[in-house]
């Protein structure tokens, strides 16, 4: 009974281990999508089905291993036969006693496999590889800064398939067609990388809100795409060996460049956002440094004649003597004083506009003001050009009396 369950799980594993490979034939899927088969087949959900096939492989592998462990216990009890139901898989030396170590680690019993006796040893290695791939594929590994762990452990699929061909004598029949297509796609992709096809450069990177980076990439020659297509991007300054798919956000009619909008949600995308943020900070620092730098032009001194230099020297000398005199005391003149003296009118005029002029008592200006105030102003006479109104009234009265 244990053998029946083990072989049933094995048949399910034959299908799922090939189906998970078919779901990663990216160029084939792109070809089918361009032919309109996405209306019939869920080609855009191939990543989702790839994950679900992975869960089924882990489940059937665990059940397959448990059933064979129980079957091994039955075999060891019989102690003389390796497989009672299939005499073709028995070793020629089936009458000798084999221990559990012989079954699990050696080919001595000659039980199962493409090469007789490799079923149990290759099965142990396959369980270890599958456990590593499954654990490193979980979201807590991929989205917490360990995408490289996920990427490099996924390359274990190569020894996994090789060991799986040796583990099951019929698996190669399932694997030969999709494995050949997968190998051809890998060779084409490798040749494109070596030839530099699709190699381009980023013309600009703009930081948007919600940690989104808008990349404008120079459109490669003979690059054609349709709405909804995606591209694999590799930026060596971010990660040399990592390729990530992103949907093209620009229209196919745009000739000079293609646009990508990438949000920082993982290790690679966060590194991309930090890289362009650092570049933007450098540009802003250079711009601010250019604005704050001012060029000061020092005028050349004009040549002066000996006479002008002598006059300037005398002027500075007398100005120093005047500054050494008594301290300056402010004289505040009232703006409401309507006196008609010339000195006060001058002060009133000098105080107009809420500005006060300061004079010193011992200076030449104060002496000049005293001289003006000591002289008496001549009496004002009437202007001859204006008629005497009082005299005219007196003449009118005399005429009326006559």
Automatic annotation (TrEMBL):
- Return the Basic residues bias intervals: 392-402
Q: Name one GO cellular component term.
A: NADPH oxidase complex
GO biological process assignments: defense response; superoxide anion generation
The UniProt catalytic activity note for this protein reads: NADPH + 2 O2 = 2 superoxide + NADP(+) + H(+)
State where composition is biased (Polar residues). 372-390
Q: Where in the cell is it found?
A: Membrane
* InterPro entries with a match to the protein in the record: Cyt_b245_heavy_chain, FAD-bd_8, FAD-bd_FR_type, Fe3_Rdtase_TM_dom, RBOH/FRE, Riboflavin_synthase-like_b-brl
Q: Where is this region: Disordered?
A: 355-402
Source species, domain of life = Eukaryota
Its placement in the membrane is given as: Multi-pass membrane protein
Q: Which UniProt keywords apply?
A: Membrane, Oxidoreductase, Transmembrane, Transmembrane helix
Q: Does the keyword Transmembrane helix apply?
A: yes
Residue ranges of the TM segments:
13-32, 53-76, 118-137, 149-166
Instruction: Recall the GO molecular function terms of this protein's record.
Output: superoxide-generating NAD(P)H oxidase activity
Pinpoint the FAD-binding FR-type domain residues. Answer: 174-306
- The identity of this protein, by name, is FAD-binding FR-type domain-containing protein
